[in-house]
Design brief:
Elements lengths: L2 E5 L4 H17 L2 E8 L12 H19 L7 E7 L2 H11 L4 E5 L15 H7 L4 E4 L11 E6 L9 H10 L3 E8 L4 H20 L4 E7 L3 H12 L3 E5 L13 H9 L4 E4 L17
Parallel strand pairs: 1-2, 1-4, 2-3, 4-5, 6-7, 6-9, 7-8, 9-10
Antiparallel strand pairs: 5-10
Helix pairs in contact: 3-4, 7-8
Length: 287
Amino acid sequence: MKKILVAIDFSDCSINALKYSVRMAKTLDASVTMIYVNKPGSAGSVYPDTQAQHLVEAKSRFENLMESYSSELNGRIDYTIREGKIYKEIAAQAKYMDSYLVVAGTHGVSGFEEFWIGSNAFRLVSTVQCPIITIREMFDVNRDIKKILLPIDHSIVTRQKVTLAGEMALLFNAEIVMLGIYSSGFEEFRLKVRQFIGQITDHYNAFKVPFKTDIVENKDICEACTEHAKLIDADLIVAMKDMDSSGLGYYLGNDSQKLINHSPVPVLSIDSKSTFKQTSSFSGSGG
């Protein structure tokens, strides 16, 4: 059974991420595990230790959430509480339970744990090895996934998201909009984009994945993605963590960071070194 791990700090943003996870789990026939990370206190602090109180409150809130969503998932929802650095503990839990997906809000702010998700979103995306969906607080989680935007640039890793995007399209009965992005005027790079689109077209035709193809010219890959997502009314963007048109080679690419922060719809980020099991002809292609 597939397993979805969702980061919870009990802010509205993280609860929205939980609702989104529950809807996905019903389609994916997956279980949902909620995770809260308790920050270790300072041994030399002169202030009262409130960790025990926080843990009691967290457990009580988790029990209420389980009661609220258990019937929708046939009881396949639970929670875990860990202690340490938030992004490291979530990544460790995802690896421990062999998560299919991690879901996290990108602007979680609450009195319970101020800036819990918001300040850790980029580190979390960088650290988690499995695919991770980031979702903004105001996104309507009741929207069905009908259009998936798949940006294709000239980078060697751009095709590594193709299998998971195709799987999602088939599971959710959605259409993929393959967006070829010419982010450079060099004909060699533009040719690569066309070649990649041709390869992906053959692959999706073979597996009967519904798709269409659009081409845009924009030096800013993030801007190209967000504008096109709005134009086609996309429900999900699938992108590589390495996506970077700046040429600076960030691990979490410059465009990836901007996309997570500015995308009007959830972003599914994939690690080029991910342990996600590729089953298509692109497996091991390095692209």
